[in-house]
């Protein structure tokens, strides 16, 4: 669970800063956070066996595929169907972005063989070298992710003195005392 929470907090940090910089609408930040959880849907295999799912759907099934690019693209597509038709493309892109961020962070996990799993499957079976920075059970990545998320929250909500927390393009400028874009008293 430490690993999952860290992924969600890193996605929050990324989304909050992108929204603050005007690159992502704030409403999409929670969707990015959900995307960061998608690869770990593979852990459902600890509760429901692949054989049970295969019997239910009638085709071979492996949970681990959900922790690969192909599985992420598919699950994000299914998730995007929950949005109204005009927002599905954006929803899919944001879900995929959160999941890809998750997979990139997983390259840093210590692996016994020194290589990460083939995250690009089904496009490639290439296994990138593992950076070997942390174990998924280590607490320091969670502490770092929490500190970054707290910093992003403080920055984007105006809790940092001298920094306007509103997204770029909606900030007050100069003589705008009322906050409505007009010069005021």
Overview of this structure, please?
- The protein has helices spanning 2-20, 29-37, 50-57, 69-80, 88-106, 140-156.
- The chain is globular and about 55 Å long.
- The chain is mostly helical and 185 residues long.
- The protein has one domain.
Count of spatially separate domains: 1
The whole-angstrom Rg is: 20 Å
The overall strand count is 0
Low-confidence sequence ranges: none
Describe the main β-sheet briefly.
none
Shape: globular
Q: How many angstroms separate the termini?
A: 53 Å
Quote the beta fraction: under 5%
User: What proportion of the residues is helical, as a percent range?
Assistant: 40-55%
User: What is the mean pLDDT?
Assistant: 90
- Helix-strand category: mainly alpha
Secondary-structure element series: HHHHHH
Number of helical segments with 4 or more residues: 6
Keywords for this structure?
185 residues; 6 helices; 0% strand; mainly alpha
Quick gist of this model?
The protein has 185 residues and is mainly α. It has helices spanning 2-20, 29-37, 50-57, 69-80, 88-106, 140-156. The chain has one domain.
How is the secondary structure organized here?
Layout (H helix, E strand, L loop, with lengths): L1 H19 L8 H9 L12 H8 L11 H12 L7 H19 L33 H17 L29
């Amino acid at each position: 669970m430490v690993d999952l929470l860290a992924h969600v907090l890193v996605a929050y940090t990324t989304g909050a800063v992108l929204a603050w910089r005007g690159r992502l609408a704030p409403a999409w930040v929670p969707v990015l956070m959900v995307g960061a959880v998608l690869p770990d849907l593979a852990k459902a295999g600890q509760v429901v066996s692949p054989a049970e799912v295969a019997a239910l759907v009638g085709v071979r099934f492996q949970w681990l595929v959900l922790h690969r690019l192909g599985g992420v693209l598919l699950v994000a597509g299914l998730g995007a169907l929950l949005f109204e038709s005009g927002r599905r493309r954006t929803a899919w892109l944001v879900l995929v972005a959160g999941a890809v961020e998750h997979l990139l962070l997983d390259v840093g996990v210590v692996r016994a063989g020194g290589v990460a799993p083939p995250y690009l499957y089904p496009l490639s079976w290439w296994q990138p070298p593992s950076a070997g920075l942390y174990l998924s059970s280590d607490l320091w990545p969670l502490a770092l992710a929490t500190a970054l998320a707290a910093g992003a929250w403080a920055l984007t909500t105006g809790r940092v003195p001298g920094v306007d927390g509103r997204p770029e393009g909606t900030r007050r400028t100069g003589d705008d005392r009322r906050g409505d874009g007009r010069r005021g008293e």
